[in-house]
Amino acid sequence: MTEKIKWNHKDLVSLEPLSKEELIYILETAKSFEEVLKRDVKKVPTLRGKSVLTLFYEPSTRTRTSFEMAAKILSADTINISTSASSVSKGETLLDTVKNLEAMSIDAIIIRHSFSGAAEFLSKRVKASVINGGDGRHEHPTQALLDILTIWEYKNILSGLKIAIVGDILHSRVARSNLIALKKLGNEVRFVGPATFIPETFRELGAEIYYNLEEGLYDADVVMALRIQKERMGSGFYPTEREYARCFSINKNSINFAKKDAIIMHPGPVNRGLEITSDVLDDKRCVVLDQVTKGVAVRMAVLYLLLTGGKVEN
Ligand code: CP
User: Fold this and answer.
1) CB of 220 within 8 A of CB of 258?
2) Does 301 lie in the same domain as 271?
3) Rounded-to-integer distance, Cα 205 and Cα 218, Å
4) 46-65 pLDDT, tens per residue?
5) Are residues 81 and 147 both part of a single domain?
6) For residue 304, how far is the Cα from the chain centroid?
7) Residues 108, 50 contacting (CB under 8 angstroms)
């Protein structure tokens, strides 16, 4: 365990401002919370008296549920706003919505929004801690943290790994957050997919770029397939789904290009048969559901650090 460090971040909008030590501190805190999740009674008083709001302008199954679970296990009160059933549908702005909710003494807001920059915008305007649950194509920091916690469990190391992230990189906030954190920790990150999904400029972010699946997966320790985000794109990114799957799907043949003990990941939700096949999802090297489990521990750690500064015994 690293020395307990002084935590002085109000928000978690991006992984960019975090040091390598701070990333490891979040992961180690999450590991300590995994023990709580194995107990018969999954409840600790750490955040008693705190209120946590989830405000999602886009659909979610995993992120929203696991944040709610995390907050409840830490004894915080939780409020979930469905934007379609709120005054957002009457035209209330994001800032007015959040200011009104904050007036009810909210301590943390988890926001998901299609606008890249929504979480940053709010973080500068409210006293509550703002946690980015995914903003447009920008970042999804807690997804990357749970991905890395999963990699740590299976590979026992946090650096020196070759990680191939395959698919719709262009629209992926998961790819961006993973790239930032995995590079800070000292890993090789490869973006693999068609040129339409990986502009050359992405090299400047520190990723190696491969437009050929076999080359991109060669010797990889981790293969992370990404969802094709049909809702964020028009036509012209690939000829047909069949053609895309033939060239870039993670299937029982293409996975053999990676190391024999490579783990197979996907942030979900999955387009089965497009970016990854059902038989690979059933393969024993596939850790997709472990990622989901780790999401609760990571989100407990993030809520705990932001709302207590790590000063309360967990
Ligand atoms: N991975 C992820 O963000 O899943 P949800 O969209 O279901 O939250």
Assistant:
1) yes
2) no
3) 21
4) 999 999 999 999 999 999 99
5) no
6) 17
7) yes
Before 269, cis peptide (omega within 30)? Answer: yes
Residue the block writes with tokens 């801690």: 129
Clarify whether residues 283 and 153 are in a common domain: yes
pLDDT digit string, tens, across residues 131-166:
999 999 999 999 999 999 999 999 999 999 999 999
Residue 61, ligand 1, Cβ within 6 A: yes
Mutation test residue for ligand 1: of 61, 112, 287, the one with most atoms within 8 Å of CB: 61
Q: Do 119 and 163 share a structural domain?
A: no
Whole-number pLDDT of residue 33: 97
Quick one: 185 and 94 in the same domain?
no
Could you give the CA distance from residue 64 to residue 5 in angstroms, rounded to a whole number?
Answer: 28
CA-proximal residue: ligand 1, atom 5 (nearest): 60
CA–centroid distance, 296 to ligand 1, in Å, is 13
pLDDT tens column, 239-293: 788 999 999 999 999 999 999 999 999 999 999 999 999 999 999 999 999 999 9
The CATH number for 71's domain is 3.40.50.1370
Give strand ranges (E) for the chain: 51-56, 77-82, 108-113, 129-135, 162-166, 188-192, 208-210, 222-225, 263-265
96-126 b/e (C-beta count within 10 Å ≥ 16 → b): ebbeebbeeebbbbbbbbeeeebbbbbbeeb
Tokens in use for 201?
A: 């400029």
DSSP of 179-230: HHHHHHTT-EEEEES-GGGS-GGGGGGT-EEESSHHHHHTT-SEEEE----G
The domain total for the chain is: 2
Domain extent at residue 163? 141-291
Question: Cβ(267) to ligand 1 under 6 A?
Answer: yes
Q: Is residue 4 part of a domain?
A: no
